[in-house]
Amino acid sequence: MTITSFHPPRRTLMGPGPSDVNPRITEALSRPTIGHLDPEFIRMMDELKTLIQYAFKTQNRLTLPISAPGSAGMEACFANLVEEGDKVIVCINGVFGGRMKENVERFGGVPVVVESEWGRAVDPVKVEEALTEHPDAAILAFVHAETSTGALSDAETLCRLAKGHDCLTIVDTVTSLGGCELNIDQWGIDAVYSGSQKCLSCVPGLSPVSFSDAAIAKINGRKSKVKSWFLDMSLIMGYWGGEGKRAYHHTAPVNQLYALHEALCILQEEGLENAWERHALHHRALTAGLAAIGLEMLVPEKERLVQLNAVVIPEGVDDAAVRSQLLNAYNLEIGAGLGAFAGKVWRIGLMGYAASKSNVLSCLSALEAALLKQGYSFKAGESIKAASAIYA
């Protein structure tokens, strides 16, 4: 069998990620590959660190992109900060909080789980109770924007509670970076990781991370080596940090880093706060349209992510059939529910380049057609009318 070049279909990506990639970013990928120790590449690396600091709103000197997706960013935070016997309070209100717990266990830590209802924000009262009951806890870990449910937790309050109990914080911002308010320095976050493929609209495969001075002190004071060689920040910083000559650590994904640099340039041009507001505007239009045809949101309004919308599937509607029709008839991808919400919710992403008026209106129109085919009863055209009223 002769295998020929792969040419994927052109989709509109409105699921939980990856999101649509800005054409400027695909152009950046095609630029000439140079060596990962080339002086010009090192100059670009320094700019990239500054751009990530801008996006995270931090001055942390240990800020860089891990050469792997957000899951590796998560592992980098836990691998470097958790030692054998460390007690870590882990907040679970969805799938990705559960992955935090798994990381604590794999690196020899002792997880203390704080459960919150799926589809709701992490409960600060429960967190404070856990911090009080476990004064020897070293770290509080939680997901800021829970991608599996569309719930947004109050990171500022949770970090303040942790500081009051001498705990470091590890925060998952994979879906929040670039899409809603995030302020590392003001909120006092100690270790944070994100992904390139969500609200930054870059290609998948990179994970921006940042560590505070307190987190660096914890790393420097370890009694044992970091159990991952590739993710050991003390080694990676020889390549990404400091002045003058860089020490070879690994062959960086050169063209992917061009793409992330371009994505962050686009974010800087738009303005961080403007990007947050753009995501919020399209969320308001989408939810107004969904409400107009009787569809409900899973998460209460005040705890709801604007860039990842969990929509309750109406009784009698076939989840897979609707998603299949959207994909095959309209080249439109939305996400299925995860875990406890499999078959019960759709996850509609409005992230980065995909957060646009044309995408919102196209999604609502296609969803109406799919629901009518399922026999779901509503007045056709009402979702477009309601969304258009928000834009007007």
From TrEMBL:
Q: Which residues form the signal peptide?
A: none
Transmembrane region(s): none
Positions of the region Disordered?
1-25
Looking up SUPFAM superfamilies in the UniProt record yields:
PLP-dependent transferases
Q: Which GO terms describe its molecular function?
A: transaminase activity
Residue ranges occupied by any Aminotransferase class V domain in the UniProt entry: 34-338
Which key words tag this protein in UniProt? Answer: Aminotransferase, Pyridoxal phosphate, Transferase
Q: Which cofactors must be present for this protein to function?
A: pyridoxal 5'-phosphate
| UniProt KW Cytoplasm keyword | no
Family that this chain belongs to = Belongs to the class-V pyridoxal-phosphate-dependent aminotransferase family.
The record ties this protein, via PANTHER family, to: ALANINE--GLYOXYLATE AMINOTRANSFERASE, AMINOTRANSFERASE CLASS V
What protein am I looking at? Alanine--glyoxylate aminotransferase family protein
Name the source organism. Kistimonas scapharcae
